[in-house]
Write a structure and sequence with these properties.
alpha/beta; two-stranded antiparallel ribbon; Rossmann fold; 4 helices; globular; five-stranded mixed beta sheet
Amino acid sequence: MANIFGGCPGSRMQQFDQEEECGAVEAGSRPSQLRQWPVQLHLVSPMAPYFQGADVVLAADCTAFAAGDFHKDFLKGKSLAIACPKLDDGQDVYVEKIKSLIEDAKINTLTVMIMEVPCCRGLLGIAQRAAASASKKVPVKCITISLHGEVISDEWV
Protein backbone atom coordinates (compact mmCIF):
# COMPACT_ATOMS: atom_id res chain seq x y z
CA MET A 1 0.00 0.00 0.00
CA ALA A 2 1.26 3.45 -0.77
CA ASN A 3 1.89 5.28 2.49
CA ILE A 4 1.68 8.87 1.36
CA PHE A 5 0.78 11.10 4.29
CA GLY A 6 -0.84 14.50 4.09
CA GLY A 7 -4.40 15.54 3.46
CA CYS A 8 -7.51 13.71 4.50
CA PRO A 9 -7.27 9.95 3.94
CA GLY A 10 -10.99 9.99 3.09
CA SER A 11 -10.37 11.96 -0.07
CA ARG A 12 -7.14 10.29 -1.14
CA MET A 13 -7.50 7.27 -3.43
CA GLN A 14 -5.57 4.21 -2.30
CA GLN A 15 -5.37 0.71 -3.69
CA PHE A 16 -4.17 -2.01 -1.34
CA ASP A 17 -1.79 -4.76 -2.36
CA GLN A 18 -3.47 -8.03 -1.43
CA GLU A 19 -0.07 -9.68 -1.22
CA GLU A 20 0.98 -7.51 1.73
CA GLU A 21 1.09 -9.09 5.13
CA CYS A 22 -1.64 -7.84 7.43
CA GLY A 23 0.64 -8.10 10.47
CA ALA A 24 0.25 -10.53 13.30
CA VAL A 25 -3.13 -12.24 13.22
CA GLU A 26 -4.63 -13.30 16.53
CA ALA A 27 -6.40 -16.63 16.81
CA GLY A 28 -9.90 -16.42 15.35
CA SER A 29 -9.36 -13.24 13.37
CA ARG A 30 -9.25 -12.84 9.61
CA PRO A 31 -7.33 -10.38 7.49
CA SER A 32 -9.29 -7.62 5.82
CA GLN A 33 -10.37 -8.18 2.22
CA LEU A 34 -10.73 -4.45 1.56
CA ARG A 35 -8.90 -3.59 -1.66
CA GLN A 36 -9.23 0.18 -1.75
CA TRP A 37 -9.94 3.47 -0.03
CA PRO A 38 -12.24 5.40 0.06
CA VAL A 39 -15.37 3.25 0.21
CA GLN A 40 -18.22 5.75 0.78
CA LEU A 41 -20.14 6.14 -2.48
CA HIS A 42 -19.97 9.95 -2.32
CA LEU A 43 -16.17 9.74 -2.15
CA VAL A 44 -15.31 6.98 -4.64
CA SER A 45 -14.22 7.73 -8.17
CA PRO A 46 -15.52 5.48 -10.95
CA MET A 47 -12.22 6.23 -12.72
CA ALA A 48 -10.20 4.56 -9.94
CA PRO A 49 -8.18 1.60 -11.22
CA TYR A 50 -9.72 -0.83 -8.73
CA PHE A 51 -13.18 -0.33 -10.28
CA GLN A 52 -12.09 -0.97 -13.88
CA GLY A 53 -13.72 -4.23 -15.03
CA ALA A 54 -14.34 -5.20 -11.40
CA ASP A 55 -17.03 -7.09 -9.60
CA VAL A 56 -18.46 -4.41 -7.30
CA VAL A 57 -20.28 -4.73 -4.01
CA LEU A 58 -22.57 -1.81 -3.19
CA ALA A 59 -23.34 -2.40 0.47
CA ALA A 60 -25.76 -0.65 2.74
CA ASP A 61 -23.75 0.68 5.69
CA CYS A 62 -25.21 -1.77 8.21
CA THR A 63 -24.64 -4.97 6.25
CA ALA A 64 -20.99 -5.39 7.20
CA PHE A 65 -21.90 -5.11 10.88
CA ALA A 66 -24.76 -7.58 10.67
CA ALA A 67 -22.98 -10.18 8.50
CA GLY A 68 -20.22 -11.55 10.74
CA ASP A 69 -18.10 -12.85 7.87
CA PHE A 70 -18.76 -9.95 5.49
CA HIS A 71 -15.15 -9.78 4.29
CA LYS A 72 -14.73 -13.52 3.73
CA ASP A 73 -18.18 -14.22 2.31
CA PHE A 74 -18.98 -11.11 0.27
CA LEU A 75 -15.98 -8.78 -0.20
CA LYS A 76 -13.05 -11.02 -1.13
CA GLY A 77 -11.81 -10.17 -4.63
CA LYS A 78 -14.31 -7.36 -5.13
CA SER A 79 -14.29 -3.57 -5.04
CA LEU A 80 -16.57 -1.86 -2.54
CA ALA A 81 -18.81 1.17 -2.21
CA ILE A 82 -21.06 1.77 0.78
CA ALA A 83 -24.11 3.97 1.17
CA CYS A 84 -27.19 4.45 3.32
CA PRO A 85 -30.42 5.10 1.41
CA LYS A 86 -32.10 6.51 4.52
CA LEU A 87 -29.44 8.84 5.92
CA ASP A 88 -27.34 9.93 2.94
CA ASP A 89 -28.21 13.07 1.00
CA GLY A 90 -27.69 13.42 -2.74
CA GLN A 91 -29.15 10.15 -3.93
CA ASP A 92 -29.42 11.47 -7.50
CA VAL A 93 -25.62 11.77 -7.33
CA TYR A 94 -25.58 8.08 -6.35
CA VAL A 95 -27.56 7.16 -9.47
CA GLU A 96 -25.10 9.04 -11.68
CA LYS A 97 -22.07 7.57 -9.90
CA ILE A 98 -23.35 4.00 -10.24
CA LYS A 99 -24.21 4.68 -13.88
CA SER A 100 -20.61 5.85 -14.36
CA LEU A 101 -19.30 2.68 -12.71
CA ILE A 102 -21.30 0.71 -15.26
CA GLU A 103 -20.48 2.79 -18.34
CA ASP A 104 -17.05 4.27 -17.66
CA ALA A 105 -15.43 1.72 -15.34
CA LYS A 106 -17.13 -1.08 -17.28
CA ILE A 107 -17.70 -3.06 -14.10
CA ASN A 108 -18.35 -6.76 -14.55
CA THR A 109 -21.13 -7.24 -11.97
CA LEU A 110 -22.91 -5.19 -9.32
CA THR A 111 -23.97 -6.87 -6.08
CA VAL A 112 -26.22 -4.73 -3.90
CA MET A 113 -26.26 -5.80 -0.26
CA ILE A 114 -29.12 -4.54 1.85
CA MET A 115 -30.67 -5.20 5.24
CA GLU A 116 -34.16 -6.67 5.64
CA VAL A 117 -35.54 -3.33 6.91
CA PRO A 118 -37.85 -1.51 4.44
CA CYS A 119 -35.76 1.66 4.09
CA CYS A 120 -32.80 -0.36 2.85
CA ARG A 121 -34.63 -1.39 -0.34
CA GLY A 122 -34.03 2.18 -1.48
CA LEU A 123 -30.41 1.30 -2.22
CA LEU A 124 -31.51 -1.47 -4.56
CA GLY A 125 -33.89 1.01 -6.22
CA ILE A 126 -31.04 3.47 -6.75
CA ALA A 127 -28.87 0.75 -8.30
CA GLN A 128 -31.69 -0.44 -10.54
CA ARG A 129 -32.39 3.13 -11.74
CA ALA A 130 -28.71 3.56 -12.57
CA ALA A 131 -28.50 0.21 -14.36
CA ALA A 132 -31.67 0.92 -16.35
CA SER A 133 -30.35 4.30 -17.51
CA ALA A 134 -26.86 3.03 -18.43
CA SER A 135 -25.99 2.37 -22.05
CA LYS A 136 -24.10 -0.79 -21.03
CA LYS A 137 -25.90 -3.66 -19.35
CA VAL A 138 -24.45 -5.25 -16.24
CA PRO A 139 -25.81 -8.11 -14.12
CA VAL A 140 -27.22 -6.87 -10.80
CA LYS A 141 -27.59 -9.15 -7.79
CA CYS A 142 -29.36 -8.33 -4.54
CA ILE A 143 -28.36 -9.98 -1.28
CA THR A 144 -30.64 -9.28 1.68
CA ILE A 145 -29.23 -9.75 5.18
CA SER A 146 -31.38 -10.30 8.27
CA LEU A 147 -30.93 -8.32 11.48
CA HIS A 148 -29.21 -11.45 12.82
CA GLY A 149 -26.72 -11.56 9.94
CA GLU A 150 -28.25 -14.39 7.94
CA VAL A 151 -28.73 -14.29 4.17
CA ILE A 152 -32.48 -14.04 3.57
CA SER A 153 -32.24 -13.86 -0.21
CA ASP A 154 -29.53 -13.91 -2.83
CA GLU A 155 -30.88 -13.35 -6.34
CA TRP A 156 -30.13 -11.72 -9.66
CA VAL A 157 -32.62 -8.93 -10.29
